Amino acid sequence: MGLEGGQPGLRSVRDPWRLRAGWPLLQLQTLRQVPPVGLYYNSKLFAKYHLALPKTWAQFASEAATFHKEDPAGAFTNFDATDIGWMLALMAQDGAFPFQYTGGANITIDFNGPKQMAFANYWQKLIKARLVQTNTDGTVMWGEMAKSLDATWLPAAWGPSYFAPAAGNSMGVWRAAPLPQWKAGADVQTNLGGSSYPVMASSKHPAQAAAFSMWLNATMQSWNVIKTPPSSLFPTYLPLLRSPSFKTLTYPVSGSSHPNVVFDSAAEKVTPVEWPPFMTEVITEAGSMFADTLDGKATLNAALNAFQKTIVSYAKSEGFKVST
């Protein structure tokens, strides 16, 4: 299981919850990407309004207020709570990740504890003051960014490849920077999304499937294609991740700058969190239960309280012993 003794330089894991939950065992699993999250900022707006690159989240709020004062039509960033994977990534950086799970039937779920409510209070204050927008992630948000109405963005390393087709006149002005920190001087990082190519025990052609998975995710031949636009994937393949040539790659949305210098540094400092076995249900419920935060009908705090009840109820219905 896993590739600990396999291809040199490949970060590898087995799928822990599927194994513990009694799903078919993995013969092999290769990780394709586990991208860290960073801060992208519109360099022209920062120069125009003499904005400072925020090192802490407190400074982020301060710069957001400055930007809004100078440009009332704009917003410092976008916050879409319906994109639960993205929000959980930010919560994890704040030490507020709501799940604790190490396998079996026991799980801790805490969407409305003190750390989670403090996280919600921070962002709700910015939302209430109209310093950040609450558009759905994707087309609407990218449209605002393209028109230089949003000054920053908090994507995973692969995010710009999705934004590029919509970047419009903002093409080339975006720059990458490290995530702001909750405590000055800290260096806490987080990641968002990722992908893997497993070979299950039930595969009719395990050797061929394993060979393809290894080639796709653990060879320079493959990565020389998928590391560049339009894919612009962020590797787990260490020979590429640690290569100077990867750090100096450029991308259309960020001009001649080198975003991977920022993301490569962050990737080495992420503290992993473990998703619950029912993450699909979490994602499904979030789409509707956080929708009212987008139009101001509900606060983040209220939505998190309601979400706690729903997810705890679901986990119990699936046979989990839940601690809160």
Please explain how this structure is put together.
By secondary structure, the protein is an alpha/beta fold. It has two domains: 1-34 and 196-242, no CATH class; 39-189 and 273-323, Periplasmic binding protein-like II (D-Maltodextrin-Binding Protein, domain 2). Helix content is 40%, strand content 11%. It has helices at 16-20, 43-48, 57-70, 84-93, 114-128, 139-146, 159-163, 206-217, 220-226, 238-241, 244-247, 259-267, 279-289, 300-317, and strands spanning 26-33, 39-42, 77-78, 99-100, 106-109, 132-133, 152-153, 174-177, 195-200, 321-323. A three-stranded antiparallel β-sheet has the order 7-2-8. α13 packs antiparallel against α14 (300-317). The protein is globular and about 60 Å long.
Summarize the structure.
By secondary structure, the protein is an alpha/beta fold.
